[in-house]
Design brief:
Radius of gyration: 21 Å
CATH architecture of the largest domain: 3-Layer(aba) Sandwich
Number of domains: 3
Shape: globular
Helix content: 40-55%
Distance between the termini: 47 Å
Number of helices: 13
Strand content: 15-25%
Structural class: alpha/beta
CATH topology of the largest domain: D-Maltodextrin-Binding Protein, domain 2
CATH class of the largest domain: Alpha Beta
Strand order of the largest sheet: 4-3-5-13-6-14
Largest sheet: 6 strands, mixed
Length: 326
């Protein structure tokens, strides 16, 4: 292993390659020459002494070492972002900061609106948003990088509490001209398409693996990518289909680029929870009394924008009780 100093730009370039699944596409988005980006990746591989990418005709995908570097790099970027926020907030003792984690589908659906409306709805409170898959958000909560998270299928961990707030129905997503003619399909029919999906820790993929195993349905991920943007791109090119919540592809569906179909045999459901560290001292409801009404409004917005593919679970009373206890 060669002793080479890493820099943030190298890591950000590497993450962009993984997100796009292509060095050529990543170079275009980063506005750098492809040979320079390829050299960047080779230098990283020489530095760690192991291959980070598997290169094939369809592009690239991370090796096991590459997956680990991706996870650690994302953790590092989040730490840097939080460090900037924490330092900039020094001296604003009367101002609370809520660091809220959202999954990529929720960020696309309501992230910008949540940040804008928080200015008027949360008194003496500043909202910061972080986008990551559920498993990374849970890690971030444990590491106290964020205060709250909307997360799918939380794993029971000491020191964290959760309450179910929302139930979503994942949908078959295809390019519009490749969509099945009927409005609903079975899971077995949906899996006749080549499938693009997240990595092995992705909650949606784990759900599919469990259901298909229980029913004896063959299931294979043809294009693995831990990036919603990358998966959308693959589906839009017609190379594969995917199974995603509506929020992940809402803009493309509204523009007519992608189409969705309900999977009704079986009907898949993902339950989203609000999670926070337990026993935080002064309860969140006491410190930030405007937070619970704001979160309820946010949940209502999500349900309305999901066009019938999501429903609210928690009552106002149960959500208030949850934050009174934490």
């Amino acid at each position: 292993m060669r002793d080479v100093d890493l820099n943030i730009r190298q890591l950000r370039n590497f993450v962009k390659v993984i997100e796009t699944g292509s060095i050529t596409r990543a170079a275009e988005l980063l506005f750098i020459a492809q040979p320079a980006l390829s050299l960047n990746i080779r230098q990283l591989e020489e530095s760690f002494g192991v291959p980070l990418l598997n290169r094939h005709s369809r592009g690239v995908e991370p090796t096991e070492a590459g997956e680990l570097l991706l996870s650690r790099a994302q953790f590092l970027f989040s730490f840097i972002d939080q460090m900037r926020t924490d330092i900039s907030n020094i001296g604003r003792s009367s101002q609370h900061t809520i660091s809220l984690g959202l999954t990529p589908s929720l960020m696309t659906l309501v992230g910008a609106e949540a940040l804008i409306t928080s200015q008027s709805k949360l008194e003496n409170t500043s909202l910061t948003l972080r986008e990551d898959p559920s498993f990374i958000l849970v890690d971030a909560l444990e590491n106290k990088e964020i205060l709250l998270a909307f997360s799918y299928a939380p794993v029971e961990r000491p020191g964290l509490r959760s309450i179910a707030v929302l139930q979503e129905v994942p949908l078959l997503v295809t390019r519009t001209d490749l969509a099945p003619t009927k409005n609903a399909v079975s899971l077995e029919e949906a899996l006749q398409y080549p499938i693009a999906h997240g990595g092995k820790r992705d909650v949606g993929r784990r759900c599919l693996e469990f259901v298909t195993s229980e029913r004896g349905i063959p299931f294979k991920v043809d294009y693995e990518m831990q990036s919603i943007a990358g998966i959308r791109d693959i589906v839009a090119r017609g190379a594969a289909a995917s199974i995603l919540p509506y929020g992940a592809i809402c803009r493309e569906v509204e523009s007519g680029t992608l189409a969705v179909r309900l999977i009704n045999e079986p009907l898949l459901k993902h339950t989203m929870h609000i999670m926070c560290p337990a026993k935080m001292g002064t309860t969140i409801a006491e410190e930030m009394p405007d937070l619970v009404p704001y979160l309820l409004t946010l949940i209502d917005q999500i349900v309305k924008k999901q066009l019938g593919y999501a429903k609210k679970i928690s009552s106002d009373e149960s959500l208030y009780d949850f934050f009174r206890a934490n």
